[in-house]
Amino acid sequence: MAKRPVTRIDPRKELSPYLNHEFNQQRNSRKSKAKISASLSSLQAERRRSLRRRLGLIMTVSILMIAGLGFYVSPLPNISTVKVTGASDLPTKGIVRTSKIKASDKVFDYIFQQKDLSQKLAKKYPEIQSAQAHLGHVNQLILQVNERPTVGYLKDGDVYRKILNNGKIGSQSVNWTKVDHEKPIFVGYNKSATLKEDLKLFDSLPESFRKQVKLLSGNTRRDSQIILVMKDDNVVIGNTVTLKDKINDYNQIRLKAGKHSLIDLEIGAFSRPLTSSEKKAYGIS
């Protein structure tokens, strides 16, 4: 019997694919573990940095709050001086007294109470429209007062009081030298109701006409009558109900009438020269 040929098998060669596969898997596993480890280390480092930032921020805010609180409770922010600006005809000491600002108060307390401060001062002084508190030096409070516009002056004996844009009368008296002569003067108004009515009518007239008026007289024969003394020394008499409609005729009549004339718009529309007694009554020389 013939012998079968013997085939030699190399075990290493047969096992090589398997061994190579196992080796590659182990190598890939080690790489994956290394990557995961590196990612975890990076994440932990980022968390530590974030924690340090948060702690730093908390410590900074805490230190600033403690320092601010320490400064607030110390005598340093206490008001030492008060400077009042913008109140041309109002008493500075009276404003400070009305505001109830004391030397023991804190500067910052009034900076955040602007509305209450304005209401308190306006109640005492109608001339004040608003007031703001500002920090001057470290412990100086600047009280900025904003006055209401003046639309005219009310003659009160030998002095004058401002008529404000809201119809109220100023609390302070001013001398003739401090009167703004571009504004009209209201003379002989003993009743506040009549003054308010005439002031309302005056405000409704054209601005070009209002600028020519230097005086309004409350010494009228009838409540419905209004008397205006012009800057050119003419006198206009009108009816409070119809004057606004007739005022357009004034310039045309004035040109024909000449100086020192009485222009009557109360019933019709005519003019005549002023008498000597009328000139004296209206202060025309």
UniProtKB/TrEMBL annotation:
Membrane-crossing residues?
55-73
How does the protein associate with the membrane? Single-pass type II membrane protein
The biological process GO terms on file are: FtsZ-dependent cytokinesis
The domain of life is Bacteria
Where in the numbering of this chain does the POTRA domain appear?
77-148
Quote a single Gene Ontology cellular component term.
cell division site
Chief localization class? membrane
Do you know which Pfam families this protein is assigned to? POTRA_1
Keyword list, A-Z: Cell cycle, Cell division, Cell membrane, Membrane, Transmembrane, Transmembrane helix
Q: Where in the cell is it found?
A: Cell membrane; Membrane
Keyword Transmembrane listed: yes
Entry's InterPro entries?
A: DivIB, FtsQ_DivIB, POTRA, POTRA_FtsQ_type
Write down the PANTHER family for this protein, in alphabetical order: CELL DIVISION PROTEIN DIVIB, CELL DIVISION PROTEIN FTSQ
Q: Which family does it belong to?
A: Belongs to the FtsQ/DivIB family. DivIB subfamily.
Q: What does this protein do?
A: Cell division protein that may be involved in stabilizing or promoting the assembly of the division complex.
Put simply, this protein is called: Cell division protein DivIB
